[in-house]
Design a protein that fits this description.
The chain is of the alpha/beta class. It is built from eight helices and seven strands; from the N terminus they run βαβαβαβαβαβαααβ. It has a seven-stranded parallel beta sheet, sandwiched between helices. The radius of gyration is 18 Å and the shape is globular.
């Protein structure tokens, strides 16, 4: 497919996981991709596969956000798509969350989206562009011991809806994806932590354990989530804005109180 031929897409958190998969998918369909992240080496590896351009910076930094938008304009003449994918941090309960940890969670999950999209909006208005924010099923429910992450991921849904409401009449669409467990480096680290708590022997066993009640019974691959991102950012989704698309194998439809009665 060449749905993105002539389109310029900026992806934050593009060095690994969902961000890297989104960059690969959009590039494979013809997009010019600008890869943003704080670690240059992973970005360079993705750039080698996508012919993308690397911008090393923090999406939550207003100066970096303005610079990367100018970078895209200078190299490609404008900006059509933003995938606000950077995120992480915010684990522990309310009582365990320090002021610094709270601020770090806000910066990593909410400010990385808000600051980057604020900088990109003038260009997106000019090009009648589209946005996809990588939220989480933690935007829709509350996992244990993830206070900061949960609060900020919930806030991302408000960000998406507010942008969709305010800029839809200017031709800009804004949607969110909400993945469940996805096989990424960050999730692998959580599986290792689970292994230490439960005695499970392998990462595969840990993933099987956390997805045993998921209707599809497995975690997603990053490429599956990237396919959903590509759809939402494409002209095929031209009537869709303010939407929240779960890419979770059915996790959020499970009726928890009845699990004991399942086969």
């Amino acid at each position: 497919m060449t749905r993105f031929k002539g389109i310029t897409a900026l992806i934050s958190g593009a060095g690994t996981g969902i961000g890297a998969a989104a960059a690969n998918r959009l590039a494979s369909e013809g997009a010019n991709v600008v890869l943003m992240g704080r670690r240059p080496d992973p970005l360079q590896a993705v750039a080698a596969k996508t012919d993308g351009l690397v911008f090393t910076g923090d999406a939550a930094n207003p100066d970096h956000a303005a610079e990367v938008v100018d970078f895209a304009k200078d190299r490609f003449g404008g900006l059509d798509v933003v995938v606000a994918n950077a995120g992480g941090h915010g684990f522990g309960t309310l009582a365990e969350t320090t002021d610094d940890e709270w601020k770090a969670s806000c910066q990593a999950n909410l400010e990385t989206s808000m600051v980057l999209l604020r900088a990109a909006m003038p260009e997106l208005v000019v090009r009648k562009g589209s946005i996809c924010v990588t939220a989480s099923i933690a935007s829709l429910a509350a996992p244990a011991d993830a206070f900061g992450y949960t609060v900020m991921k919930h806030a991302q849904i408000g960000l998406v809806r507010s942008i969709a409401r305010d800029f839809g009449h200017k031709g800009v669409r804004c949607n969110a994806i909400c993945p469940g467990w996805v096989r990424t480096e960050m999730a692998d680290e959580e599986m290792v932590e689970l292994m230490t708590r439960t005695g499970l022997k392998t990462v595969d066993e840990a993933y099987a354990h956390v997805t045993k009640d998921v209707p599809l019974g497995r975690p997603a691959d990053p490429e599956e989530v990237a396919a959903a991102i590509a759809f939402l950012c494409s002209s095929e989704a031209s009537i869709i804005t303010g939407a929240v698309l779960t890419t979770d194998g059915g996790s959020t439809i499970v009726d928890v109180p009845t699990l004991a009665f399942g086969s």
